[in-house]
Amino acid sequence: MLNYILRRLGAGLLLLAVVTAVTFWIFYVLPRWAGVTPHGMAAMYVGKAPTPEALDATVERLGLDQPIAVQFFEFVRTLLFGQEFTFGRETVECAAPCLGYSFTTNTPVLPQLLDRLPITLSLGLGAAVIWVIGGVAVGVLSAVKKGSIFDRLAMGTALIGVSLPIYFTGLLALAFLVHEWGLFPVSRYVPFTENPIAWFQVMILPWVTLAFLHAAQYARQTRAGMLETLNEDYIRTARAKGLSERKVIFKHALRPTLTPIVTILGLDIGMVLGGAILTETVFSLNGVGAYAINSIVSKDLPVVLGVTLLGAVFIVVCNLVVDLLYPLVDPRVRIAK
Amino acid sequence: MSAPSHAPEATDPVASDPGASAPGRSDADNRSLRQIAWQRLRRDKVAMVSGVVVVLLILAAIFAPLLAKWFGHPPTQFNQDLIDPSRRVPYLDPENPELGVDRWGGISSEHLLGVEPTTGRDLFSRILYGAQISLLVAFLATLVCVALGTVLGIIAGYMGGWVDTLISRSMDIFLAFPLMLFAIALVGVIPEGVLGLTGNGLRIGVIVFIIGFFNWPYIARIVRGQTLALREREFVEAAKSLGASNRHILFKEILPNLITPIIVYSTLLIPTNILFEAALSFLGVGINPPTPSWGKMLSEAVPFYQTAPYFIIFPGLAIFITVLAFNLFGDGLRDAFDPRTSD
Amino acid sequence: MRKRTLGFVALGAAASLFLSACGGAATGGGSDSADTYDLGSTEVVNPSDATGGTLKYAIAGDFDSTDPANTYYAFNWNFSRYYARTLLAFNPEPGDNATDLIPDMAVDLPEPNEDFTEWTVKIQEGLKYEDGTEITAQDIKYGIARSNWNGGVFSEGPQYFKAHLDQADHNVYEGSDPLEGFDSIETPDDYTLVFKLKDSFSEFPNVLTQPQTAPVPIEADREALYQEKVVSSGPYKFDGEYEPGVKLHLERNEHWDGDTDPVRKALPDRIEVEIGVAQDEIDERLVSGEIDVDLSGTGVGPAMNARLLDDESVKGNLDNPYTGALRFVNIHLPIIDDVACRQAIMYAADRDSMWRAWGGAEGGDIATSLLPPAIPGSNTDSDLYPSEDNKGDLDKAKEKLEECGEGDGFKTNIAVRSEREKDVQTAEALQQSLERVGIDVEVKSFPSADFFGQYAGSQDYVRENNIGLSVSGWGPDWPTGYGFASKITHGDAIMETGNFNTAELDDPEVNGLWDEALKTEDPEERADLYTQIDTLVMENAAILPVVFDKALIYRSDELTNAYYQPAYMMYDFMALGVDRG
Questions:
Q1: Domain count across chain C
Q2: Which of A54, A186, C4, C334 is deepest in the core (most CB within 10 A)?
């Protein structure tokens, strides 16, 4: 077991390393290939007065003229072992894992990211709760009542759900539910710790919109899995033994059906950061996704690297958790294999 | 939303049950299988209707210039006389500006779906032309996905061993990339004139490349699974014992049996790619203005969601209907080819 | 929204009661709110000396920096005065005299020598920082030195001192004594500063209004980190640290003495800024009274814009001043090198169509000249390329095309910042109007962040990719012709990258007039020179003016002393108070 976990962790770390390297390549190497000079890059971080001296100084300060390998090595070293940053006559220690300082605001990247993480997590996890419960419940009901009107309606809705992008449903919700009919307040994000009710009020709309998109997939998946399981011999045996239908479904059929659901859930939660970009843009939430977009727009490279890395860490961790949860959900899976 | 969550699930019947989906029969058997599938498909009303919608959409996109000409409004032509300059939305009645503005879009017999705020461009033409970009990008990107995914999937499945490990691990890695972030960044980074492409040609190229390059693992996984199963079957064994080359086995024996699942899954990948392109345009990294694209039209509608909500509806519906039609059709296709679906 | 309307009606009712009691004729229900429409642009609205309360700002973007040395946004210059006093200031009153200079920390306006190369200014004695220590001339000198001679760490702020002071290479962050060798500013005693310039610079006092002249104690300077907690010389000090993207809170500075300060009323007890709030949300909360001022000063967003225009009850809460900026299209001389071809573009452009992209009457005035209305010497009535209804003169345009040998028109590209919706629509409108005379324009959109660094402002890029046009905008650094237009029309301002004289206009006559202006003492004579420059730039057809844009600003009822200060293109923040009574 321990061996397995270690192996998975190792694979995860390797993945993080590759993602970091590729991100770095895209943002630092590609522009050079494209003919952008270090001074051209520096011009992005110099304000309205890009004098040659200011450009020189910026190139020097950010190390943009260093060979790429050196820049990459510096980034990794800073990440793993921390770094001391000099500000005039002052030195500031940035402890590992240090993502460096933003090129545009001169603030440390990691604390900024962590500040915004609660918003994104609120969004993603809250929506996940809705879509898992909703999706699985509808899926089970549909499977049990296969061919009924409910089944058809639910599956129809599910297909509609996967075909509705959040930048359409979200805007519709804002235009009509919030603005036109005033059913939801226009307000800004409030942390759960500050006011749980206000937090809930603000988040409910983004949750439901995001969940609608995903719930559909879960409902279809659950239904398919359930139908398959219900055909298995052991279910017939259970029924033959005279167990109540409820018991058959919840005690025997649901569990194996959930196994693939857990996999998808792991992947989806891992993708929360990526998905947050659109949702946060539509609902004006100031989370990691919005931070990512802003940093890309302003070419704030340390922040871009930080966000990508955080996103990849998320995916790796979620995959690991799923692997470890597997045997708990499905007793047939044994890690020893 | 993120691309992967819409991708076909690896546990879907056609993929998870390769033996049962009857590859490995002779060509004649395959043909009859396809005939059965076609018969089933024809009986599936939903799939047929959505198939017709798909065909109509493709035709509309191809003939957009003709249609726009026929209705008399090129997609970039300004009609600012219809627009209140201060409020930037259409007048209720352009002849009588004092009547105020029309929250529901300036729809008239001239402008079937109304006109855009500020510019007064005809929405119907713009949505038609938007279909061109949307479908073009989605088809090309799917093509790239399929090409990469099939080749790498077959190789991984057939060769096994360290090759398989390498390809499978890289699939994991590719799926772990924050695709949306990369896409936004890359569009801004690629310089004009790369590979002789400029302007919109370049933008389309970059978007197609990004989607294709990062989404091939979805196809590859399915192809690999199928190949893995086919490799063990007797007709492959037979070919091997007759001394057929690897190339012959891969392309003449295995590939033909993969065509059905590949078609089914690429049909299901198209809507995912449509959504992805629209998302990029929505975030402002799509096609250059004034070329219309649905995602861009939606983002242009954002400032007006309070005063002119109609402007969200048509581009949104265009995306929705297209994606839904492809999804339904793909679903029907999959069911038709799934031997476990009862007749 | 509803809350606001109720409050207003109640107020109106009380007013009419009072009128009736005095025997005045009641004008009938409702409030004459339209009377106060745009009043803040020309008068002090709701004057009051009542102190107390919290003044709440919000902004969709962020400060470029809270460090006075490192900022270039007008709103930021306006706001930083809460905690950073400057040598000089703009006259705190509405109307024509609003851009006159008055002393702030200084005792009097600076004295020049006869050729404007040396300026002497005295500061008041007894001015104090937030910790009670005295502000000396050396601190101001250090503040200026660090703002322009810092090894490039402060990249946002202007570089006027560097451009004009007679100073050898220097870096305050190198060596043990930061000011050793920094001798272009002399401090003969603790209260006197002598500035030594390379060349004549008649408008130098305007530079002394900029936040870079705020005093900074050497020992408190933390380079880029100084912005977290700037040492205050003004009526307010940082309450906690500035958190980029989140907030900035200010509280009263007990060591500030109002008697020394002719600029700041300091009425509220607290100032709070919420950062990174979506524009729609700011507008919504502005109207509902939860926020007092949109810090950016760019006015309400398009959604609220249309709503406010349709709501008579709030009309009196709206101001519609010029933002001070000109929106324009650069016609790149190296690409479209024949002046007649450029003039063809000037004639063919449909200005009405482009003006609509900016939101019609409330969005701005159609511009036909270079200098915006508030600038002395501007002549907004002149139009060298007139046409009926501003729709463009196609016959003249075709004539000009014949003249430059491109009778069938030509092909070029227009660069535009993709995130700027109005810029994009301006480009689209121009594309449509030029198509009418056969000029085929392709729109190329680029990210704002590197628009000037790598695309439109990069000489190489412009030449290699046939970028003949680019959409741009410009606001004044100070409200004179030089402060506005020298950076976009003087040949010396042309840069290889980051080029804001994007048209690359390098006309000896224009350059000569700019240089002459700097040697001219009388502001009115200077204004004449600026008028001539304006005309020359138009004749050269280097810049196609689009609009002098305006902002539609919602003025909350709780705001006191609101008036528009053209130097900062927004209300004078220093005068504002809140009255929530």
A1: 3
A2: A54
